[in-house]
Design goal:
- The complex is a heterodimer of chains A (about 500) and B (about 220).
- Chain A is mainly α and about 500 residues long.
- Chain A has one domain.
- Helix content of chain A is about 80%, strand content about 0%.
- Chain A contains 20 helices and 2 strands.
- In chain A, a hairpin with a 4-residue loop joins strand 1 and strand 2.
- Chain B has 7 helices and no strands.
- In chain B, helix 2 runs parallel beside helix 6, helix 3 packs parallel to helix 7 and helix 6 packs antiparallel against helix 7.
- Chain B is mainly alpha-helical.
- Classes of the chains: A mainly alpha (about 500), B mainly alpha (about 220).
- Chains A and B meet through helix 5, helix 6, helix 8 and helix 9 of A and helix 4, helix 5, helix 6 and helix 7 of B.
Chain lengths: ~500, ~220
């Protein structure tokens, strides 16, 4: 029952926003739905901890610890972003850029508040669908729901970004569909006549050893290319900087964390099947190649970057690479590092986007050279949080991403991947230097012209501060049930 | 009318239609008129629907009839009509302007077909019940690869949409011949996604045309680095 409510609550919010007449109704509907979804995701997590897995409708919807973790992360990002979006969109309304021809901004509000809950619902379905085909449909639906969020401001550049996003996403996902068809082909002869169960994860995982190895090999390559494109692994990453810099900030925050998790989730499911069928070497090696390539490609672009949000996009490509590497290493330790990293990244990245949004709305630009510096003096809260989150995202201790990246390095070293270890540290250091160079100037430097420090803005900065508090707390203390959930998710990968 | 129930006849029929679908795909690579391209896509989708219908008939699997029906209504009728309207509204008829010329493109398509046959042979071991559509997998992979090539080879936004749709036709054919269709719920979901994707891309094409005065996506070069 929880599972279906989890999917339907956002849809109800979307319907309410579609027929609402005022901005306030849409805001209330979205806030209420996000809060409810968060509560339901917590409940699902609790149920999976109790029972191991939850399923509904004869296994059509199915949640194990991994799905529950991804759901919980999606729901938390959606909650924080829905609070932030209220302030962010009101500020945009004040500045007049949302006005349509008739001088009212309600059209833009409606677009945002209808599409975002649909987008969230699609992401939740990705994690909850038991059937690999339905999971594919849901991942495609996340792309379709978010394309018009990218064109939200209707500029030429946002059209260009949306086109790239839709086309690369479309081609990538048609490869993933081919991979899914092949997985079905290798599975449906094992399970026999029951056609719907032939693609069910819970059935396939148990019989993975009987799948046809040649077919699964091809299926994994196609799924890696397809879901990798959606997660932003190099060389299919080119849409990411464009989309993150053109979409409204709350949407970019969701895309960079929750949507990336969903794409990786698809990849993880295929990895589990393939590694149980063919052994971990073949899929592991491919993941390591793509992961290292993504980390490597991010380096030069981070170093010469001039736009703050594009910098965040390259950082997100880097982190997609880190997670692919962690998955590729295999063994017992690396999957745990992967799940920890996914959790920590999902806290830190939206936080940075929120800071970017505050800076962008005040200075009216994303370019470092135009902001010049002094964010800390003009907006003390944003400046401090930005610096802190940036240190966290490049893996500085005491922040938690240090722990997870350290675990990845240790797992790589333990399993004898010395080249991977060396490159991982090299790329990590380069990104650290690049990010600190830019953000240090932005936050600490002196402002172009002296300005008074601004007062705190309730919706935008309180939501940001709340998330920042979470980032600080999880650096030192992870609640025991959450840790148990993360361990459970890692056990889904290792299969023990 | 006994031959209608003879599986051997069914296999020949399916192979013939699949071959025609491949011929159409290669013709689309060479064809420069946009309207003709859209109609070819419609015809190809119709053939796929017919293949699905034939397989449903010879295997007595009712859920494939639904897939066949959806293919013909959505992909062979609805989408071509929508695309032609869009082409009319933005006023283009004859401008595909591929990057490589027709002869080279056709040679590349031939090579891709060859690769598809090698790949297809390497892992297709038909089980006892899978006599129908033995040669169809290679055709499906060819359509997929050629669609991919068309995607790269074309500059205009609308023609890229067509390439994407025909690429998806290849996946559909593979699903039909390998496994006699995906489970119904997945099939319906995929159709819904394809339809929505075509609408979304259509709206984008329309707005790109309005804002850029051109649909040449190679001219959209503002976002870099």
């Amino acid at each position: 029952m929880t599972l279906i409510l989890l999917l339907l609550t956002p849809i109800a919010a979307a319907i309410a926003s579609a027929i609402a007449r005022t901005r306030r109704t849409m805001e209330v509907a979205n806030l209420a739905a996000s809060a409810a979804v968060f509560g339901l995701a917590l409940l699902t997590a609790y149920q999976t901890l109790e029972a191991g897995s939850v399923s509904l409708w004869g296994g059509f919807l199915y949640a194990d610890a991994l799905s529950a973790l991804v759901c919980l992360l999606t729901a938390s990002v959606a909650l924080v972003c829905s609070v932030y979006a209220v302030g962010y969109l009101r500020e945009d309304e004040r500045s007049g850029i949302l006005d349509d021809d008739d001088g009212s901004a309600i059209g833009h509000f409606r677009k945002y508040y209808v599409l975002t809950p649909l987008f969230v619902s699609a992401m939740l379905l990705v994690a909850l669908a038991n059937n690999l085909g339905v999971m594919w449909v849901a991942i495609e639906a996340t792309t379709l729901a978010s394309v018009f969020l990218v064109t939200f401001y209707g500029k030429n550049t946002s059209l260009e970004a949306a086109w790239k996003y839709a086309i690369i996403g479309g081609v990538g996902l048609s490869m993933a569909l081919f991979g899914t068809v092949l997985a079905y082909y290798s599975g449906h002869r094992v399970t026999g006549s029951d056609t719907l169960a032939g693609l069910n994860w819970s059935v396939l995982a148990g019989k993975a050893a009987q799948l046809d190895p040649t077919v699964m090999r091809l299926a994994f390559i196609l799924a890696l290319l397809g879901y990798g494109a959606k997660a932003g692994l190099a060389p299919m990453h080119t849409w990411k900087p464009d989309v993150y810099s053109e979409a409204p900030v709350p949407s970019a925050a969701i895309l960079s964390s929750a949507t990336m998790n969903c794409a990786l989730y698809g990849l993880i499911r295929f990895y589990i099947l393939t590694s149980r069928c063919l052994g971990p070497t073949f899929p592991g090696r491919l993941l390591l190649i793509f992961g290292m390539l993504s980390m490597g490609i991010a380096v030069p672009f981070v170093l010469v970057q001039r736009n703050f949000r594009r910098l965040l996009a390259y950082s997100s490509i880097d982190h997609a690479g880190i997670m692919a590497v962690a998955l590729g290493i295999g063994g017992k330790l690396a999957p745990l590092a992967l799940m920890l990293h996914m959790t920590y990244h999902t806290v830190a990245k939206p936080l940075l986007f929120m800071c970017a949004g505050n800076v962008q709305q005040h200075f009216k630009t994303d370019l470092f050279e135009k902001v010049k510096g002094g964010v800390m003096r003009v907006m003390p809260a944003t400046g401090i949080v930005m610096l802190m989150a940036m240190l966290a995202i490049v893996g500085m201790p005491p922040f938690s991403l240090f722990q997870s990246e350290f675990l990845v390095v240790r797992a790589a070293f333990d399993s004898g991947h010395y080249l991977v270890t060396a490159l991982f540290i090299l790329f990590g250091t380069a990104i650290f230097a690049g990010v600190l160079l830019h953000v240090g100037d932005l936050a600490l430097g002196s402002p172009a012209e002296p300005q008074e420090a601004l007062a705190l803005k309730p919706w935008r900065e309180y939501s940001m501060l709340a998330l920042a508090a979470v980032l600080v707390i999880i650096a030192f203390w992870l609640p025991a049930p959450l840790l148990e959930l993360i361990r459970g998710a890692a056990r889904v990968v290792t299969g023990s | 009318m006994e031959f209608l129930n003879n599986p051997e006849f069914g296999e020949k029929l399916v192979t013939l239609m699949a071959a025609l679908a491949l011929v159409i795909q290669i013709a689309m690579v060479g064809q420069r008129s946009l309207i003709m391209n859209i109609r070819m896509y419609g015809t190809q989708s119709f053939l796929l629907g017919a293949i699905a219908g034939a397989i449903a008939h010879f295997n007595g699997a009712w859920h494939i009839y639904i897939a066949a029906f959806l293919t013909i209504t959505v992909k062979a009728i609805l989408l071509p009509i929508l695309l032609e309207r869009l082409a009319d509204r933005i006023g283009i008829r004859h401008e595909i302007e591929p990057i490589l010329g027709t002869p080279v493109s056709i040679v590349i398509s031939g090579a891709l077909t060859f690769i598809a046959y090698i790949v297809g042979e390497s892992f297709y071991h038909p089980g006892p019940g899978a006599a129908l559509g033995r040669n169809t997998l290679a055709v499906a992979i060819s359509i997929f690869l050629i669609g991919f090539f068309m995607m790269i080879n074309r500059r205009k936004a609308l023609t890229q949409v067509l390439a994407l749709l025909s690429l998806e036709n290849g996946v559909f054919l593979a699903a039909i011949c390998l496994t006699y269709g995906m489970p119904l719920i997945v099939e319906v979901g995929v159709f819904f996604d394809v339809l929505v994707a075509a609408l979304v891309l259509g709206i984008l094409v329309y707005r790109i045309r309005e804002n850029f005065e051109s649909m040449d996506v190679s001219k959209m070069r503002r976002l870099r680095g």
